[in-house]
Amino acid sequence: DNLPRQTRTQSVFWLGQGDRSAENAAFLRSLYDSPAGAPLRDEIIQAAANAGAENDAWLLSIARDPKQDVEQRKKALFWLGQQHRIAATEFASLYDRLTDREVKEHLIFVLSQRREKAAVDKLFDIARNEKDRELRGKAIFWLGQSNDPRVQQFLMEIINR
Predict the structure, then answer these.
(1) Do the Cβ atoms of 43 and 51 come closer than 8 Å?
(2) Most buried in the list 3, 14, 64, 72, measured by CB within 10 Å?
(3) Nearest to residue 113, comparing CAs of 64, 76, 147?
(4) Helical H runs in the chain?
(5) Tens-of-pLDDT digits for all 161 residues of the chain?
(6) Which residues make Cβ contacts (< 8 Å) with residue 132, sequence separation at least 6?
C-alpha cells in the first residue's frame, strides 16, 4: 500500500466515529482479519468499540480467544469496559473462563473502572478466592481505590484474617 500509516490509522478511527451502520461495523471486523488490517489491529479494536453495540460480541470473542495476541485481547476488554454497554456481570463471568494471567490482570483493572455492584462483588471474590497471590493483590489494590461503602469492611476482614 502507498498510504502512510497515519492516514490509514486516521481512516480507521473515523470509521468508528462516523456512520455507525452495520456496514461499517462489518467492514471493521473483516479488516481486522485481513492482511491490510494486521498492522492496524489496535486501532480497529478501538474503532469497532466506538462504532456501536453490534461489535460487542465480536470484541468479546477476541478477549476470550487464547489464539489472539494478548495485547489485542486486553485492548478489546479495555474498550468494551469503557463503552458501558456490557454488564459487569458479563466481565465477572468472563474472568472465571480466562486462563491467561496477563489478560486476567487486565480484566481486574477493567472491573475496577466499573461502578456496578457486580464489579465490586467480583473483585471481592478475586481477593478472597484467586489462587494467584499477585492477582489477589491487584484486586485488593483496586478495591482500595473504590468508593463502594462495603470495601472498608471487606478490607478490615482481610486484615483480621
Answers:
(1) no
(2) 72
(3) 147
(4) 5-17, 22-33, 41-51, 56-64, 70-83, 88-97, 101-112, 117-129, 133-144, 150-159
(5) 567 778 888 888 877 887 777 888 888 899 998 888 888 999 999 999 988 888 999 999 999 999 999 999 999 999 999 999 999 999 999 999 999 999 999 999 999 999 899 999 999 999 999 999 999 999 999 999 999 999 999 999 988 88
(6) 101, 104
